[in-house]
Each structure stands twice: as C-alpha cells, then as structure tokens.
Here is the input.
Amino acid sequence: MKGFTLIETLVAIAILTLSVAGPLYTANRAIVAAETSRDQLVASYLAQEGVEYVRRVRDDAYLAAYGANVPDVSSAAWQDFLETSPAASCRAPQACTLDPVESDGPALSPCPGNACTTPLYLLANALYSQQNLSGAQETPFTRSVEIRDVPGTDDEKEVVSKVSWSFHNSEYSVVVVDHLTPWQ
Here is the structure.
C-alpha cells in the first residue's frame, strides 16, 4: 500500500506552517513599524507647535510694547514675556499644557501637580485639543511645555516641548528644544 507515513505528513505540515508564519510575522512587524513612525511624526509636529506658540507669545509681547511706544522696547517686552505673559506660568519647574483651540485663543495652563497627563483629543477639524469636545477622538498623546533658564545668561531662555505616548506597552516621547532671546 502506497501513501504518506505519519512522519512525512508531520514534516510537510511543519514546513507549510513555517512558510506561512514567517511572512505573517514580517508583515506584522512592518505594520507596527509604520504605526510607530506615524505616531512619531504626529508627536514631532505637536512638540514643535508648543515651541512655536511660546515664540509667538514672546513676539506678541514685543509687538505690544512697540505699538505702545515703550522706551527700550526689547527689554520691556522681554520682561513682560517672562513675568506677565501666558508663558510666565510655565517657567521651570512648572510645566504647562497647550490648548491651541481655547475659545479666546491658544492657552498655556499649568499642569496639576506638575504632571501633564491630560490626553490630547483629535477634533473633527483635524486640530488637537485638551478639550473633549463633541465628536473628538482621544489620542494617546500628552504634551508639556516648559521654559527653563540657560545657565550663565539672563537674556536667554530654553523652551522645552515634550510629547509622550504609549504604544503596545512601550513608552515613547519626542522632545523639541529651542532657545529664545530678547528681540534686540
């Protein structure tokens, strides 16, 4: 009687299983890598937005002082930026969150207990917000913005914007750092 023995059948099944499992594993890893890359790109844009907002606050302070014909515009605007602007509450060690869609314009808010853990929500208009508005989708991203002193100088500050998220039980973060000085 001719046919396959049990051992030949088991070997054939093992070979078939390995030939299917390898490409499936590779495809899975490629999908995970693509999702991680997508999240890193979004996080880098969100972190850069934090730095750009603080830069805008500094620039607005200068423009307000210039428009009011304040003597020594640069120094006065720099002091206003550091002491009374919305960014003043984000000086280290206090970190802030940034919500670019506040009703009265973008806002920096101190993080409760200095832990910025409020998630960002993706709104229907493709903006990210701290607010869970109607139709918003919660994202894994959290963002903090902090203004730090630069040792050895009084007229330079370091802006640190950090976006963190978790994916497949791994923690990720993107940090963007920029330095600001008075205008002149």
Observations:
- The chain has one domain: 6-180.
- The radius of gyration is 26 Å.
- Residues 6-180 form one domain.
